[in-house]
Specification:
The protein is α+β, with helices and mostly antiparallel strands and 279 residues long. It has six helices and 14 strands. It has helices spanning 75-88, 109-123, 126-144, 149-171, 175-184, 253-276; strands at 14-16, 19-24, 27-32, 35-40, 44-50, 53-59, 65-71, 102-105, 186-189, 191-194, 204-209, 215-218, 228-232, 235-240. Strand 2 and strand 3 (27-32) form a beta hairpin. Helix 2 (109-123) packs across helix 3. The relative contact order is 0.13. Residues 1-9 and 244-251 have low confidence and may be disordered.
Amino acid sequence: MGESKSGPAAGVVLAAGRTRVWVERDALHWRRGRTTVAAPGALIRRVEVDGRSLTVSVSEDTRAEVTLTVRHRNRDMVAALGAEIEAIIGDAGPSGNRPQLRRRSARVWPLRVAAGLRDRVLHGSPWWRRALWYVLLGLPLAVWLPGDDLLGVFAWLSLPAGVALLRLWVGMAEVDTWWVLRRRGVTVRARFAPDPDSEAANNCVVHFRTLDGREVTARPSLRGHRDEIRYDPQDPQRVLAPTRVAWLGVALAAFMVTGVWGVALCAPAVLCLIELLPF
C-alpha cells in the first residue's frame, strides 16, 4: 500500500451504507447489516488501499481466505484506516493459540428494541423510568380525575409528544453544526467521560485523535448512542455525536412548525389542569 500523507490517526470509522469498518483492541471489526466479523491482526494477510477503496484479505482457516471490500468518499479516511489495519498485523502465536475469526449476528429488531427498552428502563436515564410510570399511572389518573374523560385521555396521549417536540425545537438550534459536519466531517472512535466542570449528570466531554494525530478534547451537545463522534477538520473542537435521530438537519422553517405543534399537543393537558383548579 502506498504511503499516506495522513498522520498516525487512531479510531477511524468508515461508514458506507449498512457497512461499518473500524479497528479496536488489535482487531479489525467489519459490520455489514446485522453481522459483525472480528478479525485479530494475526489473521490479516493483506491490506490494499486504492483511492476510495479499501480491500482486506483475512485468513479464515489455514486454507481459506475472506476478502472484504468497502468504498468511502473520503480518501484520507480510507488511507488512515488502512494504516491502522497494517499496524495491527502480527505473526500468529504458538501452535494451539491461533486466534479465531469471530462472527456475531445482532438480534432481529423487535427483540433488539425490547431488550434495549428494558436496559434503558433499568440502567438508563431516570427519564425512562419516569416515562414508564407515566404510562402505568397516567391513564388511570386521566380517566378517574373529575372532568371530561375524553379530554383527559387525549391530554395523556398528546402531552409526551408535545414535550418531545418542544425539546426537539430547542435541540435543533445547532442545525448549522449538523449541516457542516454532515458535509465535511470525519468520523472517528472516541472516548466519552463525565464533564468535570459541570454538575449535570448528562453533560460529558469527549476525547479523540484527529487524522493528523492531534489529541483533542471537546464538549458535544449530546451523548451519542455509539462511541464515535464526527468532527470538523477545519475546527476539531466542533463535534457532533451521532444519535438515532438522524433527521435533525431540516430547514429553518421547520423550527416554527415543530414548536407550534409542541404547544398545540401540550394544550389539552393545560386545559385539564384548568378544569381541576377551583375558582
